[in-house]
Design goal:
conserved putative lor/sdh protein from methanococcus maripaludis s2 fold; Helix Hairpins; 4-stranded antiparallel beta sheet; 4 helices; 23 strands; elongated; disordered C terminus
Length: about 425
C-alpha cells in the first residue's frame, strides 16, 4: 500500500511525496536526504532573506599641515676631543720616590705629580757651584793683575806683550766663570726636574709607574711614560662634512664663529652650545670630506674626550615649512607618503620628502600643499581609493621653543672625525 509523506521546510512550506513501495524504502530515504540538503542550502543562500545594509565608511581625523618658520641647518656626527693633550715623561733619570695625585683626578697647572730621587742631582749642583766659585776667583785674580800691570805701562815697567797676555788671561777667566755658571744653572734645572709638575690644568690618567721604579729621560717618545694629561676646558668637537655640505656652507657665506649645538646620545635636546673655530684648508681626496672643529666651554668637566654627539650647524635663512605628526607618515618600500582626503571623501597617497622632527612634528620638505587635508588619526582605516568619513582636527607642537626652531636634512649626515 502506498502512502503520502511530506517534508516541512524551514519557511513553513512542505513538500508532499508519495511513498514508494516497501522494496524501495532505502532508496527513497536517500532521495529525501538529498532533497532536504538542497532545501537547507537554498534557505542559507538567502532564498527568503533580506539583503544586509552596506557598511558605513570608516571615520578619520584630518587637518591641514601646520605652517611654521624654521631655520635650516645641517647635522653632523662627531666626537669630543681634548683641546690639549700631554704625555708626561721625565726630563731626568732616576728612581721614583713619590706620586702626588690620585688616578683620574683633576690637577692644576704646576701641581707636583711625581718625585724622582734628587740626591745625585743635588750633589752635582754643589759641585758645579764649587767650580763656579773657583772660576770666579781666577777671574778676580786675572783682573787684579791686569789692573796692576796697566798702571806700570806709563812708566815703561811692563811690556806691551805682557799686557796682552794678562788681558787674554782675564778674558779666559771670564769665559770659564760663565761656563761654570751655566753648569750651575743646568744642575739647578736637573734638581728642579726631579719634581714632575703638571704643565697645564686638566684631567690626569692613571699612573704608569709606581714608586721605587727607575725611569729614564729621553728625547721625543724615548723617555719613560709616566701618565697622560688632557685639558678639557675648553673642549673640542671634531667632525667631518661632505663636499656638498661644505659647498652649501661656503655659498651661504658661513665662516668660523658660527654658533653650533650638540646633543649627546642619551639627550633629546641640543643643550650644549659652542662655536665653530676651525675648518681645514683642503678636502680629503680619498673620502671627499673636510675636517672641521667647534669649541665648547666645559667648566664642570662633564664633556669627556672620545664622547660622541650629534651637532647641528645653521647654514641658511629662515623658511616657511609644513609640519605634520610623525605618526601620520606612511612607508611604502623606500618611499615616504602621507594620506590625504580629497573633496569627494576619497583617500589618496602623496609621496613626500621628509625633514627632521621638531617638537614632535615632522617637517615636510616637498610633496605636500598647505591646503591638503592630511589624515592624522585613523590612518590604519584609510586605504588609498576608498571613501572615508571626515572629522576635523588640528596639529599643534608638543612644546614651544623659545629660540627659532632649527631643522636638518635627513640626507645631510656626516661622518665623525678620527
Amino acid at each position: 500500500m502506498n502512502e503520502l509523506t511530506s517534508i516541512e521546510l524551514q519557511d513553513g512550506r512542505a513538500i508532499r511525496l508519495r511513498a514508494l513501495p516497501q522494496v524501495g524504502r532505502k532508496r527513497a530515504i536517500g532521495i529525501l536526504a538529498v532533497l532536504a540538503a538542497i532545501a537547507a542550502g537554498w534557505f542559507l543562500l538567502g532564498g527568503n532573506a533580506q539583503e544586509a545594509p552596506p557598511a558605513a565608511p570608516p571615520a578619520v581625523t584630518v587637518s591641514a599641515p601646520l605652517q611654521r618658520e624654521i631655520t635650516e641647518w645641517d647635522e653632523y656626527i662627531g666626537r669630543f676631543e681634548a683641546s690639549r693633550s700631554v704625555e708626561i715623561r721625565p726630563r731626568v733619570s732616576g728612581a721614583i720616590t713619590a706620586v702626588h695625585f690620585r688616578d683620574g683626578q683633576v690637577v692644576r697647572q704646576g701641581q707636583p705629580l711625581f718625585t724622582i730621587d734628587a740626591r745625585p742631582y743635588s750633589a752635582a749642583l754643589r759641585e758645579a757651584r764649587a767650580d763656579a766659585g773657583a772660576a770666579s776667583s781666577e777671574l778676580a785674580l786675572a783682573r787684579s793683575e791686569l789692573a796692576r800691570a796697566s798702571r806700570l805701562v806709563e812708566f815703561d815697567a811692563v811690556s806691551k806683550n805682557e799686557i796682552d797676555r794678562l788681558r787674554a788671561r782675564e778674558r779666559a777667566a771670564s769665559a770659564a766663570l760663565a761656563a761654570a755658571q751655566a753648569r750651575v744653572n743646568s744642575r739647578s734645572l736637573d734638581v728642579e726636574f726631579t719634581t714632575v709638575r703638571a704643565p697645564m690644568t686638566g684631567r690626569i690618567s692613571d699612573r704608569r709607574v709606581d714608586p721605587g721604579n727607575l725611569v729614564s729621560a729621553g728625547d721625543g717618545g724615548s723617555g719613560t711614560l709616566l701618565t697622560t694629561l688632557m685639558a678639557v676646558d675648553p673642549i673640542y668637537f671634531s667632525f667631518e662634512g661632505s663636499e656638498a655640505l661644505f659647498l652649501k656652507a661656503k655659498r651661504n657665506g658661513n665662516a668660523e664663529g658660527l654658533t653650533v649645538a650638540v646633543r649627546l646620545q642619551d639627550e633629546s635636546d641640543y643643550a650644549h652650545q659652542g662655536k665653530l673655530d676651525f675648518t681645514d684648508n683642503g678636502l680629503d681626496p680619498r673620502s671627499g670630506t673636510i675636517r672641521a672643529r667647534a669649541v665648547f666651554a666645559n667648566s664642570d668637566l662633564f664633556l669627556t674626550p672620545g664622547m660622541f654627539g650629534n651637532m647641528r650647524l645653521a647654514t641658511g635663512g629662515t623658511v616657511n615649512a609644513l609640519l605634520v605628526p610623525d605618526a601620520a607618515v606612511q612607508t611604502d618600500q623606500a618611499r615616504k607618503m602621507l594620506l590625504v582626503v580629497k573633496k569627494d571623501g576619497t583617500v589618496a597617497a602623496k609621496p613626500v620628502e621628509l625633514g627632521p622632527v621638531i617638537d614632535g612634528l615632522r617637517v615636510i620638505r616637498s610633496g605636500l600643499l598647505p591646503d591638503d587635508r592630511v589624515v592624522i588619526v585613523g590612518t590604519q582605516f584609510a586605504m588609498p581609493g576608498s571613501k572615508v568619513e571626515v572629522r576635523p582636527g588640528s596639529i599643534a607642537p608638543e612644546k614651544q621653543a623659545a629660540a627659532p626652531t632649527i631643522s636638518a636634512p635627513l640626507s645631510g649626515k656626516a661622518t665623525f672625525a678620527n
